[in-house]
Amino acid sequence: MTAGTTLTNGTNGTTAEHELAALQREHGRSLFALLLRLSDGDRQRAEDLVQETLVRAWQHPEALRADAFDSVRPWLLTVGRRLAIDARRARQARPAEVGDAVLEHAPMCADHAERSAATLDVREAVKTLTPEHREVLVLVYFQGASVAEAAATLGIPPGTVKSRAYYALRALRRVLPGYAADLR
Questions:
Q1: What is the DSSP letter of 142?
Q2: pLDDT confidence of residue 31
Q3: More confident residue, 130 or 10
Q4: Confidence of residue 75 (pLDDT cuts 50, 70, 90)
Q5: CA 58 vs CA 73, 95, 162, 171: distances in Å
Q6: How far is CA 156 from the centre of its chain?
Q7: Where do the H-state alpha helices sit in 39-157?
Q8: pLDDT tens for residues 122-152?
Q9: H helix or E strand, kind and range, residue 170
Q10: Closest CA to 163 of 141, 142, 133, 183
Q11: Partners of 2 in the beta sheet?
Q12: What are phi and psi of 2, to 5 degrees?
């Protein structure tokens, strides 16, 4: 289809459809190839952009009648490229979409009140431990010390640190039955 060909945007839909089909046959492959590259290989998105480009051509037949160029291909490629850029910007402007499967496995964040209540429960439970178990638990789990660091700080062998931590957690599981999964 050359620049002299017109698309009719009137009541005679069949003429416009034939002209649009001719435009698609003549320039569709090169337009699709460009849009496929611009949409990072997403065939569906590229096809949608080709359709949108052809709709723009149908809506603006005056641009296709311009005598300044021999072919409408540059105009179509420019419109398609701009539509691809707009689509990319629109995707980047909003958060990424996630499917239902991702949301089902996403961890639930407890609200502030629940977290505060859990903190108080754990503090009270830690107070029920023996001083030796409490020291090891505070160093290893709350202050982030390694077993070797806790052993050096307390002046006891690393094996003793491990066993005290094990028995302290076991005691906490008994005192905090609702939190057992968090204490494994």
A1: I
A2: 92
A3: 130
A4: confident
A5: 14, 33, 75, 75
A6: 48
A7: 43-59, 61-64, 73-93, 100-104, 112-127, 131-137, 147-154
A8: 888 888 999 999 999 999 988 999 999 999 9
A9: helix 158-175
A10: 133
A11: 71
A12: -100, 175
DSSP 3-state of 140: helix
CB-CB contact of 57 with 64 (8 Å): yes
Whether the pLDDT of residue 164 is over 80: the answer is yes
Structure tokens, 184: 């494994």
Angle between helices 158-175 and 112-127 (to 10 degrees): 120
CB atoms within 10 A of CB 32: 18
Closest to 54 in 3D by CA, of 9, 4, 86: 9
The residue assigned the tokens 């996403």 is 106
Provide mean pLDDT across the span 155-170.
93
Burial class (CB in 10 A: 0-12, 13-18, 19+), 88: middle
What token pair was written down for 143?
């202050």
Task: Report the SS3 class of residue 2.
Answer: strand
Which helix (DSSP H) or strand (DSSP E) does residue 172 occupy? helix 158-175
Rounded mean pLDDT, 15-22: 77
Q: What is the pLDDT of residue 110?
A: 60
Is the pLDDT higher at 116 or at 159?
A: 159
Q: What is the pLDDT of residue 109?
A: 63
CB atoms near residue 1 (< 10 Å): 20
Distance CA 79, CA 82 (A): 5
